[in-house]
Amino acid sequence: MTAMQRREWLLGAGALGLTALSGCASTAGGMVPARTRVLVVGGGYAGATAAKYVRLFSDQKVEVVLVEPNDAFVSCPISNLVIGGHKTIADITTRYDGLARNHGVRVVKDMVASIDPAKKVAVLASGPTIAYDKLILSPGIDLMFDSVAGLRAAQADGRILQAWKAGPETVALRRQLEAMPDGGTYAIAIPEAPYRCPPGPYERACQVASYFKAAKPRSKVLILDANADVTSKGPLFKKVWAEQYPGMVEYRGQHKAASVDARTSTVKFEVHDDVRADVLNVLPPMRAGAIAVQTGLANSNARWCNVNYLNFESTAAKDIHVLGDSIQVAPAMPKSGHMANGQGKVAAAAVVAELAGWEVNPAPMLTNTCYSFVDGKNVIHVASVHEYVAAEKTFKAVAGSGGVSAGPTEVEGNYAWNWARTIWADTLS
Amino acid sequence: MRTRSLRPMWVALCLTTTCVPALAQDARTLQQHALAANCANCHGTGGRAVDGATVPGLAGMPAVYIIEQMKAFKAGGRPATVMHQLAKGFNDTQIETIAAYFAAQKK
Q: pTM (2 decimals)?
C-alpha cells in the first residue's frame, strides 16, 4: 500500500465513524490498546486466513489479535503422507510468526476459556480479558470419543489413535504401523458424515496400503465405514484399491463402530461381526470445537454452528463469525482446508465492510479443490465452485462447474504439493 | 477496482459533505479483492506464486490474456487438470473483475 492509500483509508474511516467504533474496544486485561479490534480464536485454515485477510482488506487499519495455543500450524491436508512415510511432520509444519512479521497480526499463545457475546469480551485461559468489535471463531472440531464405548480410555493411553488432528498422533500412528509385523491388519473406522475432510479416510487407506505394498506386502487394510458407501471420489478410490492394491484393501460399508476393546484391539459394531486389527484407527463422530458449543453457538443438532452464509455470522450471537469445520455446512460444501481458507476470506471481507459501514458483498464466491494422494506420487482431485444464492440464503455449487480427475496422475501429484505449499503461504505468510 | 483517477474525488467528497458515491466505489474495491482471493489458494496471495511454483503467478498478467485463458478453459480449448472445472464456476463479469485485479498487481 502506498502512503496515499493509507491516508485515504484514515480519512474515509474517520468520516464513516470508525473512530467512534474504536471506543468499543476498551480492554479489561490491558493487553492491547483500544482500537477497532477483530479477535480471531483458532489459527487453522479458516482463522489464520481470516486474521491475515482482515489486515489485507483493511489496509492494515483494523487491529487483529489471533489467539492460538500452538507455536506452529500442522496441516491436516498432506498429513496422511506422514502416515504413509512419504513426508515428515516437519514438511507439514509452518510457524505462526509470519502473520505477525508480514501482516501485523498480534498472535497470542493461549486458549480462550470463555466468551461473553453480550459484553463482547473473551477471557483467556491465563486470565486476561480481550474486548472485541468482531469475533471470528474458528475452533475446528471436537472428537466425540464418548459416542464409541471404550474409546476415550483407549485413546488416552495411546492404544487406539485418531490422528485426525495432525500432530503428535500422526507420528504415533506411523510408529504403530512401523512396529506392526508383516501379515498384520490395519483398520480405519469412519463415522457417519458430516465429518472433517470427506476423502481423508480413503486417502489414508491408500497411504497405509502404499507403505504395506513396499514394506509389508502380506498385510491388509480394512476400511470400516459407518456410511453406506465411500463419501467422496468413490469410483476413483475403488478403482485404485482394485487395481493398485488388489487383495490388500477391503472396503466394508454400513459399519458403524459402537465400542472398542483396547485389550484385544477389537472394534464392535451395531450389526456386523467384531473386527480385530493389529493397528486400530478409530475416528469417532465429530462436532464443533468446545468453545463454540460452550458459547451456545452449536445450534444445529447440538453439533454444528448455524451461520448466515453472507458474512458467516452466527445465527445465535451478533458480531461472532464462525468459520471452518465448526459450521453447519451449506449443500455440497465440504469440511475441507481449502473451503476453510475461502470462508476466512469471505468473512474477512464482510467484517471489514461492516466495520466501515459498507454494504457486505451480496454475491460472495467460494471454491474447493481437494487433492488425495493414492501413493507417494499419484493424485486424484475433486473440485467445486460455490455461489451465494440470495433467494435461498445459502451457497450452492455453480451448475456445470467442478468435477473429479479421470484417474491418478503424477502431474496432479505435482499440483497437489504445489497447492499445499501455496495455501500454507496464503494462510500463514 | 483500484481506479486511481477516482481516488482524489473520493477524498474530496469525504472531506466535504457526503461519502455515498465514493463509498460504493471502495466497497467494490474490497469485493473485487475478495473475489480475486479465490485464486490465491493455488496461485499465491495477490497472485504472487510461491518460490518454485508449478502454477503461474497471476500478478501483473495482462487482463486480456487472463480473460482469454479463462474462456479457453471454459470452452475446452485449453486442456487442464482442474482449471477447466473451476473456470466454469465464474461468469464473464466475474472473470473480467478478477483479470483487472491481477493485471493491476505488482509481480
A: 0.90
Superfamily the domain B4-103 falls into: Cytochrome c-like domain (1.10.760.10)
- The radius of gyration of chain B's CA atoms, rounded to the nearest angstrom, is 16
Angle among Cα A237, A178, A166 to the nearest 5 degrees reads 60
Cβ-based neighbours of A37, under 8 Å, separated by 6 or more:
A25, A62, A63, A64, A65, A130, A131, A132, A133, A134
Chain B residues with a Cβ under 8 Å from any Cβ in chain A: 7, 10-11, 14-15, 19, 22-24, 26-27, 30-31, 33-35, 37-38, 40-45, 49-50, 53-55, 81-82, 85-86, 88-90, 94
Cβ partners under 8 Å of residue B28, min gap 6: B1
Handedness of CA B72, B76, B79, B80 (dihedral sign): positive
Domains and CATH numbers, chain A: 3-69+110-142+287-358 (3.50.50.60), 144-286 (3.50.50.60)
Mean pLDDT by groups of 10 residues along chain B of 107 residues: 38 34 64 97 97 96 98 97 98 98 95
CB B81 to CB A405 under 8 A?
yes
Which cell numbers in the block locate residue A90?
A: 516437519
Residue ranges of domains in chain B: 4-103
Residue A422, chain B, CB below 8 Å: the answer is yes
